Amino acid sequence: MTGSADQRSELKPMSGLQRRQTREFIEGLASESRPYWDMVEIGDELARELHITPELVILYADGVEDFNCWYEGWRMNSWRVEGESPFGGAIVPPLLVSHFVLSVQFDATRPFSIGSIHTFHDSRILAPIPVGATVRIATRAVDKFEKRGRRYVRHECDVTDVNDGTQYFQEIRDILSL
Predict the structure, then answer these.
(1) Could you tell me which Gene3D superfamilies the record lists for this protein (predicted)?
(2) 3-state secondary structure of 8
(3) How many other C-beta atoms lie within 10 A of the C-beta of residue 20?
(4) Of 66, 92, 124, 158, which is the most exposed, with the fewest CB atoms less than 10 Å away?
(5) 49-77 pLDDT, tens per residue?
(6) Which is higher by pLDDT, 86 or 162?
(7) d(CA 169, CA 137)
(8) What is the predicted pLDDT for the residue at 93?
(9) Domain residue spans in the chain?
């Protein structure tokens, strides 16, 4: 990079107000955050509902480049066409709900958790989820353990249909905590 340090600092795209707000935000996180290990007790349960729209399925499939007519289809000049699968209508990509488990585990009403790393998961797909279903994603902290001097929290997750109780998905996850 050429130019003096003073010249480079003038090229920052943030205004003084933006820099101050960013600094305050980061300092606030540091003052309110706690290790995940300290925030979770064995038996803690959290749950959320998720309506799995065709648009969500298409966005997910596009993001992971999993273009399969079983999920939903799209073609030039139209947003979507109905998907078909051996199970009847369109189904949800099997691991889409796994991505939303984390949003349930990390409760937005608690302080920000620092130093958490998702280190393990074992997913079990029990039934296909139809596109358009509303599911309940529930997690429960089932264990806290140490391995090689590191602290882990284990969660079990269940994904069920809110209307008929069909169990679609189960997962076990370990979160490493500082």
Answers:
(1) Hotdog Thioesterase (3.10.129.10)
(2) helix
(3) 11
(4) 124
(5) 999 998 899 889 888 988 888 887 655 56
(6) 162
(7) 9
(8) 94
(9) 35-54+93-177
Residue range 35-54+93-177 forms a domain whose CATH class is alpha beta
Residues 6+ apart with CB under 8 A from 129: 52, 91, 92, 96, 97, 135, 159, 161, 168, 169
Exposure string over 133-146, b if 16+ CB within 10 A, otherwise e = bebebbbbbeeeee
Residue type, 61: A
Query: Are the C-beta atoms of 169 and 101 separated by less than 8 Å?
Result: no
Six-digit token string for 116: 């958490």
Task: Using the structure block, give the residue that is written with the tokens 């393990």.
Answer: 120
Q: Other CB atoms closer than 10 Å to residue 4's CB: what's the count? A: 8
* Residue 126, token pair as written in the block: 């029990």
> Tens of pLDDT along 156-171?
999 999 999 999 999 9
Instruction: Indicate the range of 73-77, 138-142, 152-156 predicted with least confidence.
Output: 73-77
Residues 112, 106: contact at Cβ < 8 Å? no
The full DSSP string for 86-145 is TTEE-B--TTHHHHHHHHHHS-TTSPPEESEEEEEEEEEE-SPPBTT-EEEEEEEEEEEE
Single-letter amino acid code for the residue at 60: Y
